[in-house]
Request: fold
Amino acid sequence: MEFEDRNPKPEHPNSTTPTAVLAILIVLVCVLLYVGWQMMSDESNSSSELAAEEMVVPKTTDSVVVDEDDMKDQKTEVSSPEVAKTEEKTSETVVSDAKVEEKKEEKISEPVAIKSETGKYTVKSGETFFGIANKFNVSASTMKKLNPGVDPEGIKVGVTKLTVPVQAVHTVGPGDILRVVASKYGISVEQLMAANGKTKNFSERGEKLLIPKKEKE
Reply:
């Protein structure tokens, strides 16, 4: 009973407290909405300003417009001297090649002079037309060409004189013995003696010796 007396319950509750709290909450909500709206408007303004700045900022580099026709003309002007030089070099090369070919043709067309010496050989006893050809290392056909009016079967000893191809006709000088003469022309002493109808290894000063070919022709 004493406790109840100390804390007496109010007979009429305070009706203003809930109303005040509700009003405060409404005010806070309004403030928050206002702040949020301000922030959103600021962001939209800043984004629009940035976009405007991007559109207004001028380009730092100047754009150069190049005409394609001018470029083609310049390329043509630059390349034309090079083409001219190339054509000149090509023409010079063709001319030089033509000159070389002309020189080659001239060299080929010139007849080649074959140095050939002949001597007269008198037929001796026991010799035949083909045997004489073998002595001088020439073929029978060559002997026939050099002696067109001679019948190979009708030669006469001491009468028929045959034209024979030789290396040279050597005139014996002082100190010329057959061995020295044969060595000089690269033949054997036997070949030299047979070609001149000698049976002895002897020669006289002033004598003319027929020097046969080294190899058969």
Remarks:
- Helices lie at 2-6, 16-56, 68-109, 129-135, 140-146, 178-185, 189-195.
- The first helix runs from residue 2 to 6.
- The longest strand covers residues 117-122.
- The chain is about 55% helix and 10% strand.
